[in-house]
Amino acid sequence: MKTIFSTLFLVVFSVVFNAQNRWENAKRIAAEKNELILLNFSGSDWCVPCIKLHKNIIETEDFKKLETDNVIVYLNADFPRNKKNQLSAELKKENVSLADQYNQKGIFPYTILLNSEGKILKSWEGIISGDALAFSKEIREIKDNQKP
Question: How far apart are CA 132 and CA 82, in angstroms?
């Protein structure tokens, strides 16, 4: 009986723990580590500018260094269309909620830099001009100008 109860408790605990969404987790991490949040709205399998943005900026070492240097927490709100690329129901729901709050016009790609409380510091509509190094430098400068 104890084994059944323990197993049931662990299952319930893991479901509740995993139910914490990525957005709340990103805000928590950003607050703990004094980081900013970079939220990107994309259509990974249909939006050509989104695909280019990911290839030329987000997937580069210059951009990834922002995460390893504790400058940003990166969050992608993806809206794929192809059946084979569909997200889980929970992730779809979270992405729709983020879009309702931060991307009501439905712009793709749309990238937003926020503080740990969710306040918008800067936004970029469409593909980001310049290269990953210039974009990373701009984000670092914004973070450096934030009050601790």
Answer: 28
Tens of pLDDT, residues 31-44: 999 999 999 999 99
Rounded distance between C-alpha atoms, residue 109 and residue 79, angstroms: 10
Residues 6+ apart with CB under 8 A from 85: 44, 45
Task: Name the residue among 15, 18, 21, 42 with its Cα closest to residue 99.
Answer: 42
% of the chain with per-residue pLDDT over 90: 84
3 state DSSP class of 132? helix
pLDDT digits (tens, 9 = 90+) for 104-143: 999 999 999 999 999 999 999 999 999 999 999 999 999 9
- Residues paired with residue 41 on neighbouring β-strands, in sequence order: 77, 110
The answer to whether the CB of 42 falls within 8 A of the CB of 128 is no
Q: Rounded to whole angstroms, how far apart are CA atoms 59 and 113?
A: 17
CATH of the domain at 138: 3.40.30.10
Domains identified in the chain, total number:
1
